[in-house]
Amino acid sequence: MYSLAFSPCPNDTFIFDALVNKKIDTEGLEFEVFLEDVQTLNQWALQGKMDFTKMSYGVLPLILENYQLLESGGALGKGVGPLLISNNEYGIWNDEVEEAKKNTQQTLNEVAIPGENTTAYLLFSLAYPDVVNKKFMVFNEIENYVLNNENALGVIIHENRFTYQQKGLHKVLDLGAYWEETTKLPIPLGGIVANRKIDNEISLKVDRLIKRSLEYAFDNYPAITTYVKQHSQEMEENVMRQHIDLYVNNFSLGLGAEGKAAVVRLLEVYQNIHPEISIDYNNIFLQ
Tell me: the pLDDT tens digits for 229-272? Predict the structure, then answer.
């Protein structure tokens, strides 16, 4: 039996439902499944705890000694990046991005960020390299934190992208759009990694099974399964579908050349910020 960890968010439960609930042939493989928030998953990845796990691309440079990246099951895309929000109407991101950044930094108090090793944090740091007043917390606590703290800002991900306006919060900057404008590549958000202690043939099989599980899910979409619903109890079905539509796409079936280029580019950016981190670019992906 192999340990498998991913988040309870609709995009992950949508991808893994058929695999973990044996709606497809698992080719004799059994999994012990753990569902946790992204920060916990990242911490587990840093500890090398899981055989197979979802992780944020922000933590990938720190775990490559113990893990290699699978082709399937991840989240890359366009228009799907984290948003910087506030409880004051600072303005929205537009073509005058440098002016927007300057204006925001002048009034910045404290920024809530979903985990120190998340992609959201890395993308925020790219856009706002000089901001030092940061507070790390679980992603689903950030909206309320921004609401209840004057002049606080927050970086939101996942379903909060669809709910912040309902609470009277305002978008300051689309951090994903900033990445896309800068790199001309899709945004690497989260991926699935295999522990290097696992036999390579097993990891390749799991990679194929994840792809098959997602193909099964796509074949039955837009139906929302019980498994997806039970882990998204406070979410309406239309929000679940928005979440799936935004984060699950062809890059989830397989990274391909463009997806791999985006991952490498993110690692290069990370290494520019952290030159003390050594990265073997020839040993990132499962082969």
Answer: 999 877 899 989 988 998 899 999 999 999 999 999 999 888 87
Which residues partner with 85 through β-bridges? 154, 171
Q: Which CATH superfamily is domain 2-76+187-273 in?
A: Periplasmic binding protein-like II (3.40.190.10)
Residue 274 bears catalytic tag: no
Per CATH, 2-76+187-273 and 83-183 having the same topology is answered yes
Cα dihedral sign, 115-116-118-119: positive
CATH class of the 83-183 domain in this structure: alpha beta
Residue of 158, 170, 231, 274 with catalytic role: 158
Give pLDDT tens digits for 150-169.
Answer: 778 999 987 787 788 888 89
What secondary structure does DSSP assign to 80-115, as a single string? ---EEEESS------S-HHHHHHHHHHH---EEES-
